């Protein structure tokens, strides 16, 4: 045996023990080969004496134990052969008890007992009872634990069970259950005592050793917990026996051991090894033990795994779903979680939230049609979180997001989540950052599943859920949000607006009114993202309204184009303060065009007026002014609703803006673009050839001025591109048949361009002019009225 001493290294102890073990194992094998029973027992006892050491850690001791286990299997085969050669198994059973030390004696006794049971010369229950009682002779926790694990291992295939060869009148499955439970009880006691043996200063060391044992899954799974696995494999252990005998006794041991590691592991073993059907029928018993466990036990994981098992059971066997209702599984789990949290006053928020998250997932899988159950889970979660304020623990908030995401993932329909009255109350416990995360999850669910929210009431509820993205009011001071993230979040809100839709115009108007109320209080930096899609939704609604003449209520109807235009004016007014004047400018023009289609002249004029005000007061950049003026001219050209006075006023202003542009080329292009405002083919009232020609001449004058300025400043003639552009305008109006644009004026423009010295020095201008001439030739070849007109032009 390894000599006891405190100064040697553990590795050396193991090496010395292994060497002595190997030597005795060699002599034992030689005795076995020569059929020498006496020497085989002698050397096997000496070999097993190496297991009497107290200086090895559980990890190292396990190494030595596995060597012994392999050798004992050889010895068991030898014992069996001896009985076949005439040796009495009873004498053999007594002979092994002559070993000098109790530990080797009991290992040999278990080995001989295994052979004794195989010979069936005595009832199995008597031998098993004798062995399990004799093993009480070893009270050292580590040695006793491994000894009993050996007993469990060699007896597992020799238990009297239904259909087993060891079943008989005197041997029943009850005896097998009694043996396993007794061995389990003793092993559990030894396991727990490993923490409490020795001086208090060694407690930390023992805890580390026990943790090492826990990591040795071969030991835990196949030794202490293997007893439970053996019980679960017995055919005779039906639901009645499990409910009346097995479960109560196992739980009694677990509760009484008062050790957190043992309690956690054994509760998990029960959940994993016994059938789901048994758990379902004994929920009240199993859950009743949970509040009695030590406060430090990770009951969160235990209950979560139980609910996962039951959820999977329900998913794979839909015919058992009625039994879940019959046994009131949800109520029992909900009550048990409440009692566990109440019993463990110091339970972290993470554990409580995780428990309710697991319960909600269980509920959604097993009772998807019972929204009241899901809402009850959320209500219970609120009860536990009340008084704790915002949750700042990162893992807890992540789990809370998981809990809130579960209904969205299950139903793929946020409308169902809106029916859960406690849903927004749970959401309130998230901080601002995680509210934004959850809001993004909700919006992604809507977009992914193309969910349409069709009532103002549901839209109001939805906006409450995603207020982390649409409201600035609860933002903490000094919080900096990444600009890219902010833009992505606001773009998701903008996309969401198009999923808020109702076929009923009145309901749709209520929806966009709700959106307006929330967006206008969301802070200026969000408006440039949220207002445009809201304007688009309102304009779509206008197009869906019946013609005013077809509506018996006219402008007095609850929803009319006039009311929607007033609504649009209110929301666009907020944009210049965003500041997004250019965006507001574009939206005003869009609304003006919509009012034009509805024949609403005063409204269209007001929108144009607002656009002009923004142009004058807010748009100062020269490039932005050019773009804005192009939009004004293009929109005004399409307007037919204005009377002569209003149109003249707006056109005159546009002409004035054109003349005030900073660069001469920009002025020229804007002025000749204004010529289109005086000639619309489809409207005889807007056909003024004189003013068209006046615009073209004025553009030509500005082009001349621009060329002279270039010549004076740079010493070279400027480009003739502007002249060619004006020529193209002359050709356009000439082709339309405007009397004031004559053949002579077109020929004059062509000659002017040909006389320009810079034409040949500017390849792009030369190419442009050549293309224009080719176009004219093409039009001549077309024939007809147009061809005849172009034939008159002499190039």
UniProtKB/TrEMBL annotation:
Plays a role in vesicular protein sorting. InterPro entries: ARM-type_fold, Vps35, Vps35_C. This is Vacuolar protein sorting-associated protein 35. The keyword Transport applies. Keywords: Membrane, Protein transport, Transport. Belongs to the VPS35 family. It is a peripheral membrane protein. It is found in: Membrane. It comes from Brassica napus. It holds the Pfam family Vps35. Its main location: membrane.
